[in-house]
Known about the structure:
Layout lengths: L6 E4 L2 E4 L9 E2 L1 H5 L7 H14 L3 H4 L3 H12 L1 H27 L6 H10 L3 H14 L2 E11 L4 E11 L2 E9 L15 H9 L3 E5 L4 E4 L7 E7 L4 E5 L5 H27 L24
Parallel strand pairs: 6-9
Antiparallel strand pairs: 1-2, 2-3, 4-5, 4-7, 5-6, 7-8, 9-10
Helix pairs in contact: 2-4, 5-6, 8-9
Amino acid sequence: MTQPRLATQTEHGRMYARSVGGEPEVPSITTVIGQYAQDLGGWHGYMAAKAALEDDRAMRASRSVGLKHAVIRDAAAAAERYRDQAAARGDRVHNYCENVALRAMGMDHAVDDSREELRQYGESAWADRFDEWWDLYAPEPLAAEVTIWNRTVGYAGTLDLVAKIGGRVCIIDYKTKGTDRKNRVKPLDTKVIMQLVAGVKAEEALADPDTGHWVDWEFGDAPVLLGVALGETEVKPQQANPDLLKHNWFKFCALRKVWEYHRSVDAALEESSLQPLMPVVPPPPRIHMPEQDAS
């Protein structure tokens, strides 16, 4: 379930309510982390150039103004198309992973249906590699797609998996990744540490979304925070360095304040007729007085 039932997309990013139909109250973990600016200009430029060179219409575009603009328009949107396609693939892979965990917990699941969906999109390799990882590490799932809340800082989120591996409780976050030129899965972004530490710092877990019933979070002392890069050719799990958790928690809390500042400024502008920038007129001309004769 990639769109949690209590999550809603708003003008301030994804936000969570306390119950189904309730008002969004706090930002999601990913929305908070999204306040950290990242320069993607080079990647956007590369994707646009690649799309233009690979476009079959490019050779004919010089003879048609309309066709040239169509090629340019499509190339400019290449990065967004790639992002949306990767997000949709990630949703399908996460759905399969969740159903595997539900099956292991003896709960209702749709493993066969979710795997068939991956097959239809030519993405069975992700499921194959995940199954290999699951068999190798033998996780004992305790909770899958669990929604958590932190009242003190003010955020919520949904964790992919809580499981015991080798007898130790692990908070696990899956990241679907592409494959590099060496046929290896691409590395995890270090921002995943903030996501994991925000998860372990939760105070409540959702028990019933319809009634808005929450219970105390019982995995706040989980000793292992695990990011798992899922690719077509391999799966690479990596543990967040325990010595860096405190620093990443402070960074996450600072980004939460940044989100609040952005929202408060936007709200102030919406509630008033004040303009952010005002015109400035030139000053009046200076009047030069004749000098008095000292004699």
